[in-house]
Amino acid sequence: MSTNDQLEADVLALREQLARLEQEHADLRLELNEFELLYNARVGPIEAQLADVQLHIDEYQLRIELVQWRGKSLSPIQLEAEVEHRLRDQRERAEAIHANADIARSFVPPPPIDAASNLDLKQVYRELAKRTHPDLATDADDRAIRSQRMVDINALYARHDLEGLRQILRQLETRRLAPDETPEQRQKRLKNERLSLDAAIRHTKVEIADLNRNPLMALKLDAAIARSRGRDVLAEVAQQTQATLDEAESELQGLIAKFREVVEAAGLAE
């Protein structure tokens, strides 16, 4: 086998490896996204209440601190403006938790597909990943085009839209063929592609490892194991979160009472 033929074989093998890894990455993202939606649907509403109560706790702690420190020099309007300004980030986080819970409640998972269709879906996706991966771009413009195309491909894959994926594949197959190459040009192209594929494989492996280290992925695995033993992990998490919420609400009531006392002591009560 000539050097160029060996390079061609190496590149083909690396393309296949990258495609399998990219599909694994896409499947992990989909699994994690669906579990996150399930988590937000079952636990999210309680977490949203907890975020609200924690925000109110922070507000009253700050109000107490400001009144004790500045007393009558701080009007009620100034007090609330200061609280609003200092706790803006906490308020935005609470709103984000509410938004995630709302999105999860309206989520409808895609219908299951039969094994044969699923096999076709994965095969077409892998073929597209081999041809489209952004890390194989030749320049910035090519990377932008590939990145957007990969976004479209991943969206179609998430919807199990086999025909949509096939349409993109047909478009790629009808692209203009590369001109004839000299052996030297072929060797240079293959060496460059091999380097790009090696880098893309390393990058995708890192992304897969990051997903597997995600705390939500660990919870997903725990939930699957527990389900086989008759336990509902998300129900347990919801109960634990509710218990934390109950404690936080009790703490909030204590702070409200303390705030009234501090206001009276400072002579600010009407």
Layout of secondary structure:
Blueprint: H1 3-42, H2 44-70, H3 76-86, H4 88-105, H5 115-132, H6 140-158, H7 162-173, H8 183-213, H9 215-228, H10 233-265
Helix pairs in contact: 1-4, 1-5, 1-8, 2-3, 2-4, 2-10, 5-6, 5-7
Features:
elongated; 270 residues; mainly alpha
Query: Any idea what the radius of gyration is?
Result: 28 Å
H-E order = HHHHHHHHHH
Beta-strand content bin = under 5%
Sheet with most strands: none
User: What kind of oligomer do you see?
Assistant: single chain
DSSP strand count: 0
Query: What is the mean pLDDT?
Result: 88
How does this model look, in words?
This protein is an all-alpha fold and 270 residues long. The protein has a domain at 43-109 and 233-270. The chain is built from 10 helices and no strands. The chain has helices at 3-42, 44-70, 76-86, 88-105, 115-132, 140-158, 162-173, 183-213, 215-228, 233-265. Helix 1 packs across helix 5, helix 2 (44-70) crosses helix 3 and helix 2 (44-70) packs parallel to helix 10.
